[in-house]
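Appendix B. Chain record.
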Amino acid sequence: MGSSLHKTKRRISSVNSTKKITKAMELVATVKLKRFKNVMLENEAYANELVNIIHTLFERIESEDNPYLVESKSEQDLYIVVSSNLGLCASYNNNIYNFVNKNVSKSNTLVIPVGYKGDNYLKKEGYNIDENFVSINEHIAYEDIQKLGNYVKNEFVNGKYRSIKLIYTHYVNSLKFVPEEITLFPLKQVEGGANIGYEPIFDPDAKTLVDELVPIYVVSILYHKIIESQVSEQASRRTAMENANDNADEIIDKLTLEYNKARQAAITQEIAEVVSGSIYK
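Structure tokens predicted for this chain:
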């Protein structure tokens, strides 16, 4: 009986130690979530306005006049896949992996993984990958994302890829995160530019402005979506750690009840032995 009590007490202590770790990780994830969410919201207005300006310009140029709007004759596609660098973020990475497996072919495709988890998974699955930008979401810096944006822009303009797409995790709310795919190149001519009520005057001309703004536009989209993926990752990790803490509390309550029952049984047995011994004397 004493051995059972000691074993249960050790288990309670072990669960309490684990709970301290998960509680600390939950607090860290909460702080990071707030920080990245603020950055995402601050950047959102700028990114949306830039999209409106680009669409306004595209409405006023011919697609044949701009290399960003024309699909190249290449048969190869390029995908940028954003995952996490660390684990313990529930289904965040698995959702990305499942989305990639359903939508990305292994043939005639090059994948640029952003995040060590995705890099390891894609290599194991046999995808053709470029590892030059794996760590840019470890310490997110605009300059690093600018290098990625300029790289994919130059590769598309040079005709190396038929299309360039980004797979990231869209943040819906604190409990819902959805993998999504957007096309970076070729850019699409769509209606819905800035509604200013009159025909704008461009100086210099629209084509020149497109050439100047497209690199900024692509970097802005990449930056915004990578930040949004970080928000999703931290929210997912916080939820996972919160659930781990709740499970730890349930286990502790169960083990404490088990310990108290065993302790009570041990005390009852000792009393019975004492009483029995005194009767026989």
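Further analysis of this model is presented in Appendix C.
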